[in-house]
Specification:
Elements (H helix, E strand, L loop, with lengths): L6 E8 L7 H10 L6 E3 L6 E3 L21 E8 L13 H10 L24 H4 L3 E4 L17 H4 L12 H10 L1
Parallel strand pairs: 1-4, 1-5, 2-4
Antiparallel strand pairs: 2-3
């Protein structure tokens, strides 16, 4: 790994989570020689770990998968058209505790991923990527895919996402200067 802020990237493996197991997706990914760190079925809660977080997975372009102290890649069985956050999210707490142990901050610097297909043309900011935290595959610089689609990031990182403060208009500063 190349060092820097730890991060996690959420991908979709397009399949019906009521019909496909995490184990079968993991086996297929191995056949394709493209392992992920985790494969997760949010409906059943099945989790298959394919790689340790200290080893780069292969779902990201060029060296992006080596960015950060860890750059964990999670394949969620579901659809980019139907947000996986609308399901039960079985065992998500265990995944988040595991990510916490690797010091991945519970923040989503790029904001919520756009709905598919708008996510195909989403901004992919290297400045936001450098902050670490949680990202959708569609938010990774150099990526061209549109997954995971529109997901509810508060179901993943909670409501504690930082709110951006807008600067006060200049007129407010002039009033303060006159009073002081």
């Amino acid at each position: 790994m190349l060092g820097g802020a730890p991060r996690v990237v959420w991908f979709i493996w397009p399949a019906d989570p009521t019909a496909v197991s995490a184990r079968s997706v993991a086996q297929r990914m191995l056949q394709l020689k493209c392992p992920s760190h985790l494969v997760w079925n949010p409906v059943t809660g099945e989790i298959a770990q394919m790689l340790p977080p200290t080893r780069a997975a292969c779902g990201l372009p060029r060296e992006r998968g080596r960015n950060g102290r860890v750059c964990i890649q999670i394949r969620v069985i579901g659809s980019s058209h139907e947000p996986f956050t609308d399901t039960k999210l079985e065992r998500l707490d265990e995944i988040l505790a595991w990510l916490d142990a690797w010091h991945v901050p519970r923040k989503w610097p790029a904001g919520p991923p756009l709905p598919y297909p708008h996510s195909l043309t989403a901004e992919r900011s290297t400045r936001l990527w450098a902050q670490g935290g949680h990202f959708g595959h569609s938010q990774v610089p150099g990526a061209h895919d549109g997954d995971p689609g529109k997901i509810d990031i508060t179901r993943i990182v909670g409501n504690g996402a930082p709110r951006l403060q807008l600067p006060a208009p200049r007129e407010d500063y002039r009033v303060l200067e006159e009073v002081g």
